Here is the input.
Amino acid sequence: MVRIWHKQDSQEAAIAALNIEPLTDENSTISHEFYVDRSLLKLIPQISQSYSGYPHQREALLRLTQLWRRLDSREAAIASLEKNTSPEASLTILDPTLIALIQRIPYLYEAKGNNGMP
Here is the structure.
């Protein structure tokens, strides 16, 4: 999601966009993941505030929805959002639903170290 939001070409560049110093000690993997997680959680309120509906921003949020809900495709993410699982009443367009989901993530997140999850 961060890679798409910041228009980066690689995961390393996306992590760099979070201004996290990369750890070189292989034994520091867990602490590095903790710092990445913490930085991602700090990013969430900024995303909500700076969202302008640009196509790359929407795609980033759709990708986050897909990963968060463990869905197979972008289309499945859109379909899940169209079911109006948001606490907001009567959402008829996708953007408010995306933002509502993003705003709930910091409260729902549990750092369990799932491999393969950005």
About this structure: The CA atoms of residues 105 and 115 lie 18 Å apart. The chain has a mean pLDDT of 75. The two ends are 8 Å apart (CA to CA).
